[in-house]
């Protein structure tokens, strides 16, 4: 397991972080105070407890499993999530990502099946990594979302229970009381009825550079589905409209549900985490790439740069395939033509696209149309492109499809699976960026060899180079 900063087994470092109330360690571990029976963030403003009264946990779920309740001052359940524990997306990290994406609602056996491991093995690895089994992690996700809804919205508590993923109001009340030692009614007494729009605010690990993500979405929008509106990302589904508005310190998530639907805050929050890459270990990334002679100045210019994750695990890869060897504007045009064939927001489903005459319908070449249809057939037959999928398995499956090469497979791994070490081989914009920085000609093979020194963060290196290249291109056009 690869980590940075203190871990739950590194007592002295953890205690030093608590004594300094350093916010950078919020979410990396949890402080349990045995004398008071509470668990806190490392930055909790309360008086520093004595060493003999402290126990450190790798996650809030582990602290709750030990019988502790959440601190009412520092609200540890709302701290930024722990950074991914392994840059290569191992099973434990993928399980946590799937849980955050709502995959845990089917239960532990279904989650284990998606990860191709047994429930017992999943229990073993999540306990070893996070100090708690998958059931406890799923419950903590629900409780955390429920607390945000209780605190930040006016939804009736019955709707809060089901919006947070609980199977019953009783289950919701029991889990809430166990975590906070107070009922939902006690926490929210005298609140009015629900408004049309529901908002929650997500804390963000610092540093955070949201502008490049907004610029990326504006350049790679999906007509009728995902795009930039008034400085915020807007994502439309049949059931709701989600707006993600970032600031320097947080992301505000707003949901407006369609008639006859309750707002699905769980999916909206998972969308924000995916699009803005909120689980990135930015300290480790910036430290590793900031020491590089080529990338150091770029990291200093944009600390906290994230990978702009695709909002949809089907539409993102289709756009990547359509964007092979054409401009972003041309890919947007083709996505718009494809979306016009759909009766729902966004493009048609994989089961429809696999049989569409894409050559005539949206003006694709035979080879490009065949690649899109092959991708659609693979997804329709069960290929998992969700963020928690195994990147190596997905890459092998994509490379086996006609018309999909290494650049496309790596770009899907980077932007849809958010694999931090994915590197888009042979990308022309990356070559142009490096040539501009070094004032020398660089071949695709030379650049791929150069990228080896940026492991295991090659994906973030690519984002820094892409962002630099796009910024320089826009500046030249303005001049």
CATH level-3 fold name of the largest domain: DNA Methylphosphotriester Repair Domain
The total of helices stands at 23
The CATH class of the largest domain turns out to be: Alpha Beta
Alpha-beta content class? alpha+beta
- Uncertain segments: 1-8, 474-479
Distance between the termini: 48 Å
For the record, the count of structural domains works out to 3
CATH superfamily of the largest domain: DNA Methylphosphotriester Repair Domain
How much helical structure, as a percent, in the residues? 40-55%
Total beta strands: 9
Q: Classify the beta-strand content into a percent band.
A: 5-15%
Q: What number is the mean pLDDT?
A: 88
Radius of gyration, in Å, reads 23 Å
Task: Provide a short characterization of the protein structure.
47% of the residues lie in helices and 9% in strands. The protein has 23 helices and nine strands.
């Amino acid at each position: 397991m690869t980590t940075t900063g203190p871990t739950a087994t590194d007592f002295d470092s953890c205690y030093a972080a608590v004594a300094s109330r350093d916010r950078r360690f919020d979410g990396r571990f949890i402080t349990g105070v045995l004398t008071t029976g509470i668990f806190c963030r490392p930055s909790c403003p309360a008086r520093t407890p004595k060493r003999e009264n402290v126990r450190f946990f790798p996650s809030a779920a582990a602290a709750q499993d030990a019988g502790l309740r959440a601190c009412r001052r520092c609200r540890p359940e709302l701290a930024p999530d722990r950074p991914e524990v392994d840059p290569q997306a191992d099973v434990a990290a993928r399980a946590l990502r799937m849980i955050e994406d709502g995959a845990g609602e089917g239960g532990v056996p279904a989650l284990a099946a998606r990860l191709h491991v047994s429930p017992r093995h999943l229990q073993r690895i999540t306990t070893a990594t996070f100090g708690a089994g998958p059931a406890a992690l799923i419950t903590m996700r629900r409780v955390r979302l429920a607390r945000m809804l209780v605190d930040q919205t006016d939804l009736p508590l019955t709707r809060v229970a089901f919006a947070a993923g609980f199977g019953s109001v009783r289950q919701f009340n029991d889990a809430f009381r166990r975590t906070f030692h107070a009922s939902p009614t006690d926490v929210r007494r005298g609140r009015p009825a629900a408004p049309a729009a529901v908002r929650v605010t997500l804390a963000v690990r610092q540093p955070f550079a949201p502008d490049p993500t907004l610029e990326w979405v504006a350049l790679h929008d999906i007509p009728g589905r995902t795009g930039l509106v008034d400085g915020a990302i807007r994502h439309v589904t049949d059931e709701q409209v989600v707006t993600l508005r970032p600031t320097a310190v947080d992301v505000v998530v707003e949901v407006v549900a369609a008639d006859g639907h309750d707002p699905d805050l769980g999916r909206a929050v998972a969308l924000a985490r995916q699009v803005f890459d909120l689980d990135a270990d930015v300290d480790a990334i910036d430290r590793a790439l900031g020491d590089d002679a080529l990338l150091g100045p770029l990291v200093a210019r944009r600390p906290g740069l994230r990978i702009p994750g695709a909002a949809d695990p089907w539409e993102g890869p289709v756009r990547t395939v359509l964007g092979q060897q054409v401009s972003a504007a041309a890919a947007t045009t083709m996505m718009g033509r494809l979306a016009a064939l759909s009766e729902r927001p966004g493009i048609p489903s994989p089961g429809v696209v696999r049989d569409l005459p894409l050559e005539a319908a949206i003006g694709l070449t035979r080879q490009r149309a065949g690649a899109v249809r092959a991708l659609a057939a693979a997804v329709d037959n069960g290929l998992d492109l969700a963020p928690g999928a195994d990147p190596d398995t997905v890459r092998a499956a994509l490379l086996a499809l006609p018309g999909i090469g290494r650049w496309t497979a790596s770009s899907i791994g980077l932007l849809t699976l958010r694999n931090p070490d994915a590197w888009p081989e042979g990308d022309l914009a990356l070559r142009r960026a490096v040539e501009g920085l070094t004032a020398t000609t660089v071949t695709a093979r030379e650049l791929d060899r150069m990228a080896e020194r940026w492991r295991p963060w090659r994906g973030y290196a690519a984002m820094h180079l892409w962002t630099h290249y796009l910024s320089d291109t826009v500046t030249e056009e303005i001049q």
